[in-house]
Amino acid sequence: MAQFRAKKLDLGCFVNVRNIRDHTKRKVFAEHEAERQALRYIIRNTSLSQRARAQAQLQLTQMHCYTRSTQIKNRCIMGGKGRGIMSDFNMGRYQFRINALAGNIPGVKKASW
Amino acid sequence: MSVPRSRILDLAKVQCRIFSTIFNPEGLRLGNKVLRQRLKGPSVAAYYPRRVGTLKQLQKAYPGWETWDEKEEDRIEGLQVAKMRGKGAPKKKRTAAESKKLGKKKK
Amino acid sequence: MVTMIYSAPLDAKSHLPLDKATISSLDELRLPRAVYAAYLRPLRRAPQYGVPVCDLQLRSYSVRNLELFADTAMRAAYYLNLPAKGPVPLPRITERWTVPRANFIFKKSQENFERRTVRRLIQIQDGEPEVVRAWLGFLEKHQYHGVGMKANVWEWEELGCGKKMEEEAKAAAEETNGLWEGFGRRKLGPEEKVRELLNSEPFRRAMHGDAPMILPEKEGRGQEYKTPLHEVGRG
Q1: Residues C139 and C212 occupy one common structural domain
Q2: Residue C199 Cα, gap to closest chain B Cα (Å)
Q3: Which superkingdom, per the lineage (chain A) (predicted)?
Q4: Which of B14, A100, A91, A92 is nearest to C112 (CA)?
Q5: Can you give the residue range of the structural domain that contains B23?
Q6: Phi, psi for residue B68 in degrees, rounded to 5
């Protein structure tokens, strides 16, 4: 959503609409995480009054979808791909292979055993 | 030898105070596990590498020093050329009347 | 024995070999002890009590860099009068990944990649905390490329340290006095947020218009929020 997006591009990797969007989502999530956790706590706390808990449920559902952690998806930092990402390197499998063969990833070599 | 329940509860209370945990002898669902969770935000937000080491950041870090930004200089030069040819950006209209006048003239 | 390198004299007769007497007298000269030690294995001090004070783990992808830096660390420890054990080679970590060679389909043809992390452990025994910190600081300042460091430090207090700590905490609290209020990564944690939310207008209304809940003050030095919230909620 445009209201969350950084006014100036602050990405140093491969830039793509989807990458920018995902980056924005991550930042929004980090910003609102405390609030979400607080609401989740109130909802789960059986010692609070039922109405207060219902109120918390309402507030949680009314929060923007960008504040949800499930909206976040790991994307390739070299090519923006959304599938087959290796979480150790934040890269797609093919980009990983290219970079590993080029020696750009420290310590990673072709293996044979 | 049996120990009275109240004494054990006292002990548990003191234990909770010392180790900063929640005293909950009845085992109620208080949702405290939510508060105990680590905040994932900072690590999640650090997934993509940020844009660092740009010339503008350098200029900001060392305001007294001279830096040469090729692209920026080119842009400014182009703007000057356009202005000299009379193709520069129009002057900003401050009031509604000013902008209206111009429109009528054109007609 | 150390091989000596003679600097050739600059005069015209430089091609002439040195006479035997000169060579033998030059051979008799020995290097300063500290320089000579650099050619030998690192010296180490014997611990008196054997109480572990600091565990330094070095990690790297290349053995050469790691060995060199571990050697440096041992020498530094010797000259700081720290009894050091090690460098103990810890089991190396091997991570392997298998990816298809092609960017699209053709799963039958794949390629393996691996990353081997070699580790060394250096343990400092019976060291003064200050000296250990100086040692760690020295190593950090002269970090070697491609070598990561991780240190576990244990400090030992004398008896009756509780009272001392309380005094120190009081002094520190007076000194800072709200100066560090906004310090730290976690600006508004879930605990504070819960309080804020429960005191907000919709929640107050939801609690049948009860008076705003009075929350207990934070106790002294405990920075984390510890009061059981469920009791607060009932109020």
Answers
A1: no
A2: 18
A3: Eukaryota
A4: A100
A5: 1-27
A6: -120, 110
Q: Assess contact for A41 and C228: CB atoms under 8 A.
A: no
Which residue in C193, C210, C227 has the most chain A C-beta atoms within 10 A of its own C-beta, making it the best mutation to test that interface?
A: C193
State which of C153, C178, C205 marks the end of a domain.
C153
ipTM: 0.79
Q: Structurally, how many domains does chain B consist of?
A: 1
Q: Which residue from A minimizes the CA distance to C207?
A: A52
Is residue C204, in this structure, part of any structural domain at all?
A: yes
State the residue for tokens 């910003």.
A31
- Local confidence pLDDT in tens for the 235 residues of chain C: 445 555 544 555 556 678 888 888 888 888 888 888 888 888 888 888 888 888 999 999 999 999 999 999 999 999 888 898 878 999 999 999 999 999 888 999 999 999 999 999 999 988 888 888 889 999 989 989 889 999 888 888 778 778 888 888 888 887 776 666 555 545 567 777 887 887 777 777 666 555 444 444 443 333 344 444 444 443 3
Residue B94 lies in a domain: no
Cα C76 from chain centre: 15
Compute the distance between CA of residue C43 and CA of residue C72 in angstroms, rounded to an integer.
11
Give SS3 for B96.
helix
Residue numbers of A between 34 and 53 with CB closer than 8 Å to C: 34-35, 37-39, 41-42, 45, 47-49, 51-52
Tell me how long chain A is: 113
Answer yes or no: is C137 within a domain: yes
The 10s digit of each residue's pLDDT in B54-77 is 888 888 888 888 888 888 899 999
**In this structure, are residues A107 and C117 in contact, taking their beta carbons and an 8 Å threshold?**
yes
How many independent structural domains does chain C possess? 2
For each of the domains in chain A, give its residue range(s) and CATH number, in order of start: 13-73 (1.10.287.1480), 77-108 (no CATH)
Domain membership of residue B75 (yes or no) is no
Query: Does a structural domain hold residue B36?
Result: no
Please give the residue range of the domain that contains residue C207. Answer: 190-234
Q: Check: CB of residue C15 under 8 Å from CB of residue C88.
A: no
- C155-209 pLDDT, tens digit per residue, is 887 787 788 888 888 888 877 766 665 555 455 677 778 878 877 777 776 665 5
Question: How distant is the Cα of C204 from the closest Cα of chain B, in angstroms?
Answer: 19
* C148 at B interface, C-beta within 8 A: no
pTM check: above 0.80: no
CB-based contact, B42 to chain A, within 8 Å: yes
C110 to chain A: closest CA residue: A97
* Residue B1 lies inside a defined structural domain of this protein: yes
